[in-house]
Amino acid sequence: MTAPVDRRSFIRRSTLIAGAAAIAPSLAGLVSCSEPLAPYDANGVRPASNRGRTGGYGELEPVKKYPEISIPRGFHAERLSVRGDMMDDGIRVPQALDGMGAFAMGGNIVRLVRNHEIRDTANAATPFAANPYDAKGPAGTTTLEVEVRADGAATLRRQFASLSGTFVNCAGGITPWGSWITSEETVAGTSAGWAKSHGYNFEVPASANGPVTPVPLKDMGRFAHEAVAVDPATGIVYETEDRNPSGFYRFIPNVRGNLAAGGKLEMLAVKGAPKYDTRRGQTVGVVHEAIWVPIANPDSDAPTISSGFVFDQGFALGGAQFARLEGCWYGDGGIYFDATSGGEANAGQIFKYTPTSAQEGELVMIYESPSLGVLKNPDNVCVSPRGGIVLCEDSDGPNFVRGLTRSGEVFDFVKNNINDAEWAGACFSAQGQTLFVNIQGSTSSTSDTFAATYAIWGPWTSGAL
Fold first, then answer.
1. CA 39 to CA 186: how far, in whole Å?
2. Are 386 and 464 in contact (CB under 8 A)?
3. Which of 114, 210, 121, 124 is nearest to 169 (CA)?
4. 402 near 56, Cβ under 8 Å?
5. Is the pLDDT of residue 19 over 60?
6. 9-462 has which fold?
7. Where do the domains of the chain lie?
8. What is this structure's pTM?
């Protein structure tokens, strides 16, 4: 395996095979990458990216209006929201801007439902808005209403709190029925001083105009949730878990589109290889037959539970293990998800699961970062309208938003110039012309670390995103 570290070069593992193109996202949308790529040198490095057929968008430059970020020349950015801004409901924008989903609301209006991964301790925590789930819970969601022009330019219209009293709301996912599932990345309970148990998913309709009544979706499991993705063909919800080892789960609802009506939780296993370990020794493009094992007890209201409460049940039945699963997104008939610390370099892996029947599917690794200098610890992930994959880094700074092409090339797209905070919440408007993304800031509500939400638009068709 090669391990070049030039951040401005297109890199891929030497193990990438031609057949991997067959498992890449939305290939029909990657016209801009359809021509042969320039050859690698002896070290597996391409020349620095130029705009065009190699998939990237060229060198990054600081934005004149917002020098805390750098983007490719020809692209534009608008800062929509900053930690500490006064929202329209009289509440200041909380810290820890994390996972986020974009929803078309008619005309040129888009709503963003945004997580806040606040980790204050129970003895110091307080809800930031009314109608809290837990009278001490410091986290939740806010909603931004944005006007998007035909060219992708975006303007904030209003913003307000939409869920309160939860804890460590990290990522989540959009649903086909117009809601955001926000996920608690914790199993903290009343023994730690909280008024209620945590470790659940909650649903926030994009249409909500204030804090919703919080309903924990307990059948979806009490564990350190990260992200979710819904298969629109079946209504099945796929879930990732941020621990090591972690599991990849699916929730089959009793009533499609009504998650509060309950359902059954299952964990992915590799057929014929019980307790398969994906964390090391994987090869890009190798397909594994996948099956699902049941989670008999997805929930417990005990004051304290193990972080492996759910994982251990599935693992005992042969469930597969991953290295800290984080981002999760539906695209091209399957679910893309990443293991933030997986791989030989502990730098990250990208997987795809494609269902082939009601009970089985195919699991394949489509990319593994050869070093932290190429791609370091991808967290939130989304598939662009044109078929590229957007990856938000969460590691020691500086952190980037990077793109991944169908041929396994990684390129820089946005850089955080102001602090070491991670990128999070990448998602596109329904029109496909605007990327929204967050600099997270701090997970302490009292920190003055810079955090903000941006809209970015420009000549997308000149590259892979």
1. 45
2. yes
3. 114
4. no
5. no
6. Neuraminidase (2.120.10)
7. 9-462
8. 0.90
